[in-house]
Structure formats: C-alpha cells, structure tokens
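So, could you explain this one?
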Amino acid sequence: MRHRPLSLLLAPCLALLPAAPGEAAGLEVVGGGFEREGVAYRAVGVNYFDAFLRTLREPGDFQRTRSSLTGPANTSYEAGFDGLAAAGVPFIRFNAGGFRVADYRLYQKDKAAYLAQMRAVVDAADARGIGVVPSVFWQTDSFAALAGENRAAWADAGSATRRLADAYARDVVGALRGANNVLMWEFGNEFNLQQDLPVNDDRPATISSAGVRDAVAAFAGVVAELDPARTTTTGHSVERTAAAALRQSGSFRPLDTREDFREVTITDHAGVGVISAHLYQHSALGLDPKDSTADPAVRFGEPGLAYVEVVAELMAASAASGKPLFLGEFGVGEGSALGAPDAPATEAEQLRYLLDAIVEEQVPLSALWVYDRLFTGRNELDYTITTRNDRADRLALIAEANRRLAVPEPGTLGLAGAAALPLLRRRR
C-alpha cells in the first residue's frame, strides 16, 4: 500500500480550534485519587471504542474504510450517547485514531476535516454531560506501519514513527484541549503486552519495556506542553504473568510474585500520572479465553486466585506510587469466565461480581468493555452492550455501582451519573 510522504503528514494543521491550554480542566490527581473542580471523583464508565472510528468507515459497511472522504460521516454515535446519558453513564474511553493504516486516509488528505470529526464526537458527548478519555495511539503497529516502519521504531526517538506520533499527538491534543469534558489523555491500548517478547518467526519485531516507556514519556511531554491541566496514562493492560522474567531474561518463567507484579506495574507508569490496567476474569488468572489449551500460567503461582485479589494488588501499586488506578477495561462476554473457580454462571452475575470487586477496593476510575461496538476484528469475542440487545441491563448495573462507590452530597454531581463526593477513607 502506498502512503503519503511523511513530510506532508507533518505539515502544520490549520488552527481549527484555537482554545488556550488549561481553559478546560480534566481530572486532577490528588492524594492518590482524582478530583474534578476541587471535588473528589470516582466513576465507572464504558468503552465506546469506535465512537470516532465509525466516522472513518463506510456508513453501510463498517468493516470498510470510507471510499469517499467528502461525503457525510457516520454520526450514529449521537444515538449511542443518548443511550448512555439516559442510563447515567458518566464517561467513555474511545479510540482517538484509526485501527488500520487505511483509516488514516482522511488525516493524510484533509487533516482539518479529520480533527473536526473527532471534535464533533467529543462535543456530542459533552452536550449530554458525558466525559471522554481519548486513547491516541490505540493500534500502535498500524501507526508505525503508517510511517513505513514496525513496532520496534517506537523505541527510537529519531524514527519516522516517533516524528509522526509527535505531530499526531500535537494535532489531537490541540484539537480537543478546549473541550470541557476531556478527563485525561491516554497513550494507546495495551502496548505493554508487546514489550520484552522474544523474537521468533511469528514475531519478527519487538520492543523493550524501556522503549515503550520512552515512547509514552514523549507523549506525556506533549500533553504537559499543550494541555498542562490534564494528566496522562498509558492505556496498558494488566501486566503479563511473567513480566519481570521477560524483561530480565526473555523467558516466560518464573512467574511473577505479588511483589514483582507491583514493582513492574509502578515502573511501567514512571512517566505518567495515572496507573492503567485492563483486567478481565481470565486475565486476572493468567488464562487465554481464545485458546483453552494454552499453558495456564496461573498468576502469582496461586491457583484459585479471586479477581478482587488482583484488583487489590493494583490498588496497592497505586497507593505505593501515589498514582490513581484507571481500570481502563473490564467486562463480561463470550469466554470471560474461563477457568474462574469462583465466578458466577450468567454474564449479568459475572459483571456484578467484577463490579463488587471495583466497589470493594474503591477503584477511582474504571470502564466497562464494550458499548455499541460496530467494528469486530478477527477472532474477536463478543462483549458488545447496547440499549437494544440482551445485555442492555448491564448499563443499570453500572449506575448501581456508581451509587455504591459513594453517595454524593446534593449539588456535587460532576458529569452525568459520576460519583463526585467528599473525600472518603479507603476501607483498609
């Protein structure tokens, strides 16, 4: 596939949205938790993964990138936000970019139109009192391919990938920083699962954890320059079961201890203000729902581990680092309770089980996977929730969890449905 020259991609964008940095404030990190406008803030939201991505695809065939860049974009996210507002869901996390290389065609050809479409999504959420967490480099391999390189280039500050990433981050942050509802900025999606892996025939390019940290720190530096009132996070998943061994020796054994887990989690968030983890029932245990024959690398070497125990370890890392935890993905769906000895049988009961752990540990911010998803990749498991399918009742469980996280005082609600509350002591 031929791409536009990098020099054209790096050309200055029109001053589409000239809002000054700091004009609108997001979540502030205070005492290991979040505050918004001076009030402590805890909330459970959802991943609206393709709220923006759908605008880059054919309205009648979401699996295809739009062939015409001048026709009307898919604005079905408007109805999606209506459903979230009615359910009292306070915020979304979304992909603030493409998924495939072709998805960046509009950015290459008409940057102002691309950014305007993204701002329209954010403004539509804001009009309904819904906050947003933009994840800027969701598909890091595709973004490197856009620059004509592979994932290893993310570790090289002088690479075409990093130069393009710097320009893209400046464009996106510049376009959205004036929006009142941007809560914080996220680098990407689960880049830590690509780090420190041995090279083989199926994995010809790899990147070290130090290289990932450097790329994330560069992104955080752009945010600090352009939007200093807002904090940043990585978008990382929960660490692999042998993350420490992988970075030390390139081996999947021995398994990390609880101490290893906390140390690696803290280290991988050295350059940002918020710890990120994506934690499903299977990932808490160290299992793979897409391959039931895989070697069960049981987390911490402790069979029968409960989900809440892993959440507690993440909160311990949060407390030790003074950085709040964003559980950026959790959820239930096809294969979600694989091998879980204590998980309930039905999906609704499983979700309540996960939410119980989030409430018990008072996780500051979390987002359910996934709402109103149109795009599905190969071997994708079905987790999709809409207001019309048989998972619609899950939105009510989110509202219930937000009420349980804290009881807000009258007049202290922040965004729609969020628990904006007086500071509370942790239960431990």
